[in-house]
Amino acid sequence: xxxxxxxxxxxxxxxxxxxxxxxxxxxxxxxxxxxxxxxxxxxxxxxxxxxxxxxxxxxxxxxxxxxxxxxxxxxxxxxxxxxxxxxxxxxxxxxxxxxxxxxxxxxxxxxxxxxxxxxxxxxxxxxxxxxxxxx
Length: 135
Description:
There is one protein chain. By secondary structure, the protein is mainly alpha-helical. The chain has helices spanning about 5-20, 30-35, 40-55, 65-80, 95-110, 115-120. The chain has one domain. Helix 1 runs antiparallel to helix 3 and helix 3 (about 40-55) runs antiparallel to helix 4. The two termini are about 25 Å apart.
């Protein structure tokens, strides 16, 4: 099962906290908690859970239904990324790549041939989110 990126990000925050507590990391070198505040992680988890539920509900889906699920999660993630209440936190390059990989893996784990889906729409596999993605 695909691991949601916020799980990885929480692990980075926890590792940094341990290093700070042990004195092996200088406070001025710390930044994970600022990069990954809990409200960002929670909102991202919620969006990805809704996506999982969308995909799980698809039975012999049409391309339009699959792209509908992709569009919904991407728009949700756009809103999270642009949320001023998160203090300027958002998705950086690594996080964007992890989110796209997660979307691809989740679809694949539910029997959707992502490469074929993309090809039928005249795009590469890694372009399935591009139409809606702002992050």
